[in-house]
Amino acid sequence: MEIEIQLTREPIIAPKLAEEFSGSAGALAEFSGNVRASENGAAIAALEYEAYSPMAENEIRRILESLAEKFPCLAVSVIHRLGIIPVGETAIYLGMAAKHRGEAFGLLTEFMNRLKQDVPIWKRRALSPAEFSALIKS
Amino acid sequence: MEIEIQLTREPIIAPKLAEEFSGSAGALAEFSGNVRASENGAAIAALEYEAYSPMAENEIRRILESLAEKFPCLAVSVIHRLGIIPVGETAIYLGMAAKHRGEAFGLLTEFMNRLKQDVPIWKRRALSPAEFSALIKS
Question: Which CATH superfamily includes the segment(s) A2-137?
Answer without folding.
Answer: Molybdopterin biosynthesis MoaE subunit (3.90.1170.40)
